[in-house]
């Protein structure tokens, strides 16, 4: 089977913020991965590890501090104004909070139609029909077009956010924790909607989350982030079957299993210590203060993100 071409390549991507007394917060600090056309790359890690910042920097909502994002052969952070506008037509985002990401003063029809107007794709009756079609696609009714966001539940609002992202027919969508603010009963519906849309519209996803079981369900490959860098990247099946990095092992040990026999017999890995500050990350491996396998080299050298088995990358000195 021939592999699809790489749609996005992220090379040594960095995003730093200046905070307080000119201190530098290294939110994303040297990310390397690629996403093939039509696949879903899951990005997981604890809150504050830089997942959402990475997603926003990749689609240029934030300018990169260093490194490159290559989209379909173009360097996203070197585009001129016209190219940047064209890029926003190809790459969209579904935001985490369906309550904060929709303008409360706009009707649902205008929220979905905003991108259509900016890129001048449809007008008049065609625009209205396109909005009705999108509402139908995400499981809402055409009557909803004239209502305001406050009249909808969280799950319905997130569907409106999905329709807005789809409106200009993008190739690539960053799903920034699209289910974390929703009831558990609604989460599976939204994820299944995203899977169906990917199949129907040949979409490519970066799916950011910290619910590991949901990431396994939707992702082809999964990257694990810790304090601004990737510590492991592998196919979804491989990562869950054979996690190599101690941090990944600890994360996966926290997922509850529905079989009580298996649940009783397995050992939970508890991480000691706190996550170091991204303002002043320690030298060497960033995970060493919480790692039970840490040795002297871990304090001195940053581990290389290397391929240990086919398509299985790990950043650890002691694997």
Give an overview in words.
With 319 residues, this protein is an alpha/beta fold. The protein has a single domain, classed as P-loop containing nucleotide triphosphate hydrolases (Rossmann fold). It is 33% helix and 24% strand. It has eleven helices and twelve strands. The chain has helices at 51-58, 81-90, 108-118, 124-137, 154-166, 184-201, 212-218, 236-241, 246-253, 260-265, 296-300; strands at residues 6-19, 23-36, 40-44, 66-71, 74-75, 91-94, 172-176, 204-208, 221-226, 229-235, 305-309, 312-315. The strands form two sheets. The protein has an eight-stranded mixed beta sheet with strand order 6-7-8-3-9-10-12-11, sandwiched between helices. It has a four-stranded antiparallel beta sheet with strand order 2-1-4-5. The longest helix has 18 residues, at 184-201. The model has no long low-confidence stretch (mean pLDDT 91).
